[in-house]
Design a protein that fits this description.
The protein is about 35% helix and about 20% strand. The two termini are about 15 Å apart. With about 475 residues, it is α+β, with helices and mostly antiparallel strands. The model has no long low-confidence stretch (mean pLDDT about 95). About 45% of the residues are buried. The strands form 4 sheets. A 7-stranded antiparallel beta sheet has the order 15-12-14-13-17-18-16, with helices on both faces. It is built from 14 helices and 18 strands. It binds flavin-adenine dinucleotide. Flavin-adenine dinucleotide binds next to strand 3, helix 5, strand 10 and helix 11.
């Protein structure tokens, strides 16, 4: 699509958009041209840093006039290549748009610019004695716009849902440069199609999200966190059932001993148990009433009696809670140096035991020479299966080998009517596998929607499909 060369685009931008902050040095082009996935070579033409909506509109109008594609960019912590620019696109970073626009105490809503980080929004909520429940290890860097564009999940989905549940209003700039306000912070609004929900999970393909109104909630009462040592992975779903039955679960995470060993090697926390186990669960419960801890004690004793768990450690004060969470949160960061091929699959939780048996069999036969690391938000039916790159393989050889096996992984996910991307999105990396979770008809409708919003195909083209 691009006919212009890099220097021509840079010169055009400088002459047509002189008021907008921009960068074109090699470091910026590299850093803003990619997300956390290392399989693509970043090659944007220029990086733009608008400060307000009017500047975003100017950029999008310019992109249409000269047919230059745009890649909307948040914190670039994405795990699907969605924010990757590989073909001289202009990257539009919202890092200079990170302010609070409005707080409404009565409605318990906050309106922020889309470049605000996830953690900054959590802190804004806390300062108002309220709570924003979307939480995961990249929160310090990921942005609200990126979270909404990927319909982010994280560790609290089991209690609070994905970010979709919390977005009550959006302001977006369409690919034709129109400003559109959606839903106005309303709880109830049945006036036909709710376009807000199309933008949630749109991965930058339908427009640039510039502002979001987020519903906040009351802070959880006291929370208690624990780590459990589990020998048999097949017992994890049974443990989940017992927790769900008797306690208010806020998080229920799983990882294997291989995953934990990578985290321990990376460091930054002290091991909370006394010996090794094959698998681990970290749970968080909200202690809603005085006898909450007694309930937990009973569940834990029951789990020991049934032989489902072999060791437990409970954390109640903030510093031990923080330490226990590090066992799980350090895993994805610790694996980064192995340039892992990431699977982010989900099935209904009732299908997890069967999926685990079949997936284990498949991966052990298909990847005899690769190290496989399992972890994930198992309470939501979501597993991250990471295949680590041996250092003798080049990234492209490794990706090609994994793509072949991934067809089989996706067939298995399709058999369970699951999703090939539970929370990371499709971006570039999962494009070949979208067909395992969406029918041809559904993909055709998605393409048609994209065409209506973006007739000139300038908004993150080539992503999702
Ligand atoms: C260590 C680690 C742990 C993680 N854990 C989780 C987890 O538990 N759960 C989870 O869901 N994700 C997780 N992620 C993935 C990632 O953090 C999320 O997908 C996050 O929501 C991406 O936000 P971002 O601002 O970094 O987006 P980016 O990576 O910058 O962009 C992601 C996509 O959104 C688009 N986009 C960005 N901003 C806008 C905008 N303003 N308007 C329109 N489109 C836009 C981009 O074009 C791209 O397609 C993790 C990542 C890391 C590195």
């Amino acid at each position: 699509m691009i006919k212009l060369k890099r220097e021509e685009i840079q010169n055009l931008v400088q002459s047509e958009l002189p008021e907008i902050s921009m960068a074109s040095d090699n470091d910026s082009l590299f850093n803003y041209g990619k997300d956390w996935i290392d399989f693509y070579v970043p090659d944007p033409s220029i990086i733009l840093f608008p400060k307000h909506n009017a500047e975003v509109i100017r950029i999008v109008s310019f992109a249409n006039k000269f047919s230059i594609p745009i890649v909307p960019s948040g914190g670039r912590t994405g795990l699907s290549g969605g924010a990757t620019a590989t073909g001289l696109e202009m990257v539009v970073s919202l890092k200079n748009m990170s302010s609070v626009i409005d707080f409404n105490a009565e409605d318990e809503t906050i309106t922020v610019q889309a470049g605000m980080s996830t953690q900054a929004l959590q802190l804004e909520a806390e300062a108002k004695d309220l709570y924003f429940p979307i939480d995961f290890a990249s929160k310090g860097t990921s942005c609200i716009g990126g979270n909404i564009a990927t319909n982010a999940g994280g560790i609290h989905v089991i209690r609070y849902g994905m970010i979709r549940e919390w977005v009550v209003g959006l302001k977006v700039i369409t690919p034709l440069g129109q400003e559109m306000k959606l839903n106005n912070g309303l709880i109830k609004n049945n006036t036909g199609y709710d376009l807000r929900h199309l933008f949630i999970g749109s991965e930058g393909t339908l427009g640039i999200i510039t502002e979001a109104t987020i519903k906040l909630t009351r802070k959880p009462r006291e929370t208690v966190v624990g780590i459990l040592g589990v020998h048999d992975i097949q017992n994890v779903p049974k443990i989940l059932s017992l927790f769900k039955k008797d306690l208010v679960l806020v998080a229920f995470e799983f990882f294997t001993n291989i995953a934990l060993n990578h985290a321990i090697e990376y460091g930054g926390f002290s091991y909370a148990l006394t010996r090794d186990h094959n698998n681990y669960v970290i749970f968080e419960i909200e202690n809603l009433h005085e006898k909450g801890i007694d309930d937990l004690d009973q569940v834990i004793s029951n789990l020991h009696r049934l032989g489902y768990i072999h060791e437990d450690a409970i954390a109640m004060d903030p510093s031990s809670i923080n330490n226990v969470w590090k066992h799980r949160e350090t895993i994805p960061v610790a694996l980064t140096r192995f340039q892992p091929y990431k699977n982010d699959i989900s099935v209904r939780t009732s299908n997890i035991p069967d999926l685990i048996i079949e997936m284990n069999l498949l991966l052990n036969t298909q990847y005899p020479d690769f190290s496989i690391v399992w972890f994930g938000h198992i309470g939501d039916g979501n597993l991250h299966v990471n295949i680590l790159k041996p250092n003798t393989w080049t990234p492209s050889e490794f990706k090609a080998a994994c793509d072949i096996v991934n067809e089989k992984v996706c067939q298995l996910v399709e058999k369970f009517e699951g999703s090939v991307s539970a929370e990371h999105g499709i971006g570039l990396i999962k494009k070949p596998f979208l067909r395992f979770s969406k029918s041809e008809l559904e993909i055709e409708f998605m393409r048609s929607i994209k065409k209506i919003f973006d007739p000139n195909s300038i908004m993150n083209p080539g992503k999702i499909f």
